[in-house]
Amino acid sequence: MENFKYYNPTKVLFGNDVLDHLCPEITAYGSKALLVIGKTSVKTSGLYARVVSLMNICGISHYTYEGIKANPLYQDADEAVALAKEKQVDMIIAIGGGSVIDTAKAIAMGFYVNHSVWDFYLQKAAKPTQALPLFTILTLAATGTEMNSGTVLQNNETGKKLGYSAPCLFPKVSFLDPSLTLTVPPNQTAYGVSDLISHALEQFFGKGESPLSDLYTAAVIKLAVQYGIQAIENPSNYEAREQIMWLATNALNGTLKAGKNAGDWGVHDYEHTLSVLFDIAHGAGLSILYPAWLKHHQPGINSKLAFLAKNVFDVDDSDQTTAANFFIQKLAQFYTQIGTPTKLSEVDILPTEKNKILDNLKTNKVNGSVYKLTEVDYEAILELMW
Ligand code: NZQ
Ligand code: ZN
User: Fold this and answer.
1) For residue range 66-77, what is the model confidence (pLDDT) as tens digits?
2) What is the pLDDT at residue 299?
3) 3-class secondary-structure state, position 34
4) How many of the other CB atoms lie within 10 Å of CB of 331?
5) Prediction pTM value
6) Is 291 a pocket residue for ligand 1 (Cβ < 6 Å)?
7) Residue 149: what are its φ and ψ, rounded to 5°?
8) Does 268 sit in the ligand 1 pocket, CB within 6 Å?
9) Can you tell me the distance from the alpha carbon of 7 to that of 175, in angstroms, rounded to the nearest whole number?
10) Considering the domain 11-180 in this protein, what is its CATH number?
11) Within the chain, which residue ranges are assigned CATH 3.40.50.1970?
12) Of 52, 90, 321, 344, which is most buried, counting CB atoms within 10 Å of its CB?
């Protein structure tokens, strides 16, 4: 096993109506909150009104920054920082999915500096040592951001989508009520399942042998397949939503990377190019990329794929290559079954975009930490995605 540090200070309240505990959890942190929300879903579902009335009940004055888009922009975070500073809020409450929560993390650290939050993502600013207390009310199971210190924002002018993390960005408390995800449409449900499976795979392909982490990973993927199909077949299936929510959190809260040197993350780096160039959903980019990336790196990873074929799909073929091919095919079939794409044409990205994609990959030096990606690899993987 590779040496590792395991630190996760986020308190998670999981289950139906955990929002009833919002007041006692937040009042210790102050009396003024900035609520951060997306475009429409939390207002349509009535969740925003419910949180506002809870603010009134617990005597917390609140201001709202709304309109965070999927594939969030750093400019929104900078604007919200200005509002947070003007109102001198004591805390941030993010109500939404990964885009909202990641933006809220940027606001939390931006509150204490006088430069654009984007300087953090560009590694041009000192690591933040303080951030406003952040509380999250998760409405979409996908990223795991509700229980990690990571945040991903993008700059459309420069064509960069960058991740960033710092220990002060862990949410203080995250409220995970599966019933809040019952309104998530099938496509977003599928993208979320694709994202959580990708997080498991990124860490599985990390450096080092870690039998417990590898079996955890296989279990996360196996259950994501089982409950992902159930949630797509019946979006109001609470048990399926409940399991997917907890799977997504565990897929990226530090559990799976123990002993794996944090993972490879080359597929995510490649996917950021697709999201920043074409504004496609993160999970959709990943379900197109992973089958291609796995195929491209065979036969170097046949034994790892055979492990997954056995522990995810119960296929125990003595011939490793056969088992490996089976895993890749079954994974792609599953993505198609739940309605997330496996080819670029399904998201209207055509071969005419080839040079634009390759240029962005080169400019951003897209790479994996274990499975290195050269310009030859960029193109070979791209050819497998058309
Ligand atoms: O904007 P609204 O109207 O709220 O609609 C959202 C959005 O259109 C909708 N939605 C969210 N909750 C809903 C709902 N619709 C109905 N009912 C609900 N309960 O879903 C759409 C997508 O929301 P978004 O937050 O973008 O999705 P997700 O949670 O998948 O987040 C994706 C972002 O997270 C980043 C990705 O790069 C992407 O920008 N990631 C963050 C990570 C982290 N911080 O650890 C790791 C991941 O690898 C990922 O990179
Ligand atoms: Zn992801």
Assistant:
1) 999 999 999 999
2) 87
3) strand
4) 24
5) 0.98
6) no
7) -105, 20
8) yes
9) 19
10) 3.40.50.1970
11) 11-180
12) 344
